[in-house]
């Protein structure tokens, strides 16, 4: 009986010690992986500030504000992953518009013209090498409001149907916003039709008048054609006189010998 109790007690102690040892040699808990810090938010792009500081774009900026297109472009620049590309004419480009005139457009048409000056994606200048003249690129105006681009040795040319222009400088070209200066207002065929006025021929080069004769040349020609040039040479006259004098002396000598 005592042996059974001793045996049971021994087994119990052995089981307890095995359980304690198992707890001490259990593998350590995995270390939690730290959560990476979120990427910093991109800087807010203020299109009004860029266009005000960059150059003489006051007319285009006023159209952006009056048509409320500025809000559309601003949202695309800061709240989308696509970004935006804007083509901005200088103030002088708007002043040069005589026919057609933007003043005769309705508010909706004017809004479409301003939307026509932007692409709903960020494009660096090098990206336009992949554009083809035969393919049209959609603008913010949508529908038939498309542009054609060609790259000529690094110069980007734009064809809007009514206007053919080129990018003259990069105002801002940091993803997600690209702003490029152009030297003409982009006029869409969807509004102005296909009756495009011919490009004026270049002015003819002025005729170059022949060079006037110099005074020295004129005086030399006058001397050559003057009556004095036709007079006999003085040396010839003196020879005739000498010959006559010798003849007189010879005759006089012959007479003296006869005497």
TrEMBL record:
UniProt membrane topology term: Lipid-anchor; GPI-anchor
Domain FAS1: 44-186
Keywords tagged on the record: Cell membrane, Glycoprotein, GPI-anchor, Lipoprotein, Membrane, Signal
PROSITE patterns assigned: FAS1
Keyword Membrane belongs to the record: yes
InterPro entries: FAS1_dom_sf, FAS1_domain, FLA_A
Region annotation Disordered: where it falls in the sequence: 197-237
Pfam families referenced in this protein's UniProt entry, alphabetically: Fasciclin
Signal peptide as annotated in the record: 1-22
Ranges of biased composition (kind: Low complexity): 222-237
Localization (cell): Cell membrane
Major subcellular location class: membrane
Compositional bias (Pro residues): 197-207
Family: Belongs to the fasciclin-like AGP family.
UniProt function note: May be a cell surface adhesion protein.
PANTHER family: FASCICLIN-LIKE ARABINOGALACTAN PROTEIN, FASCICLIN-LIKE ARABINOGALACTAN PROTEIN 7
Listed name of the protein: Fasciclin-like arabinogalactan protein 7
Species classification: Eukaryota, Viridiplantae, Streptophyta, Embryophyta, Tracheophyta
């Amino acid at each position: 009986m005592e042996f059974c109790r001793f045996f049971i007690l021994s087994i119990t102690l052995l089981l307890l010690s095995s359980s304690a040892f198992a707890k001490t040699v259990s593998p350590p808990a995995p270390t939690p992986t730290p959560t990476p810090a979120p990427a910093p938010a991109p800087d807010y792009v203020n299109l009004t500030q860029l266009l005000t500081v960059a150059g003489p774009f006051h007319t285009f900026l006023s159209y952006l504000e009056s048509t409320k297109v500025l809000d559309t472009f601003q949202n695309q620049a800061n709240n989308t992953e696509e970004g935006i590309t804007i083509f901005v004419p200088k103030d002088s480009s708007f002043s040069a518009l005589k026919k057609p005139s933007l003043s005769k457009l309705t508010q909706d048409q004017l809004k479409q013209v301003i939307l026509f000056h932007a692409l709903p994606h960020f494009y660096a200048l090098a990206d336009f090498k992949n554009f083809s003249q035969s393919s049209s690129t959609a603008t913010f105006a949508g529908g038939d409001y498309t542009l054609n681009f060609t790259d000529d040795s690094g110069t980007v040319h734009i064809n809007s149907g009514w206007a053919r222009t080129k990018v003259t400088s990069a105002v801002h070209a940091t993803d997600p916003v690209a702003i490029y200066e152009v030297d003409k207002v982009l006029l869409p065929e969807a509004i102005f039709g296909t009756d495009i006025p011919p490009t004026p021929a270049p002015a003819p080069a002025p005729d170059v008048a022949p060079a006037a004769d110099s005074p020295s040349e004129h005086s030399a020609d006058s001397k050559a054609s003057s009556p004095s040039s036709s007079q006999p040479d003085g040396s010839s006259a003196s020879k005739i006189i000498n010959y006559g004098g010798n003849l007189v002396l010879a005759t006089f000598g012959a007479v003296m010998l006869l005497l």
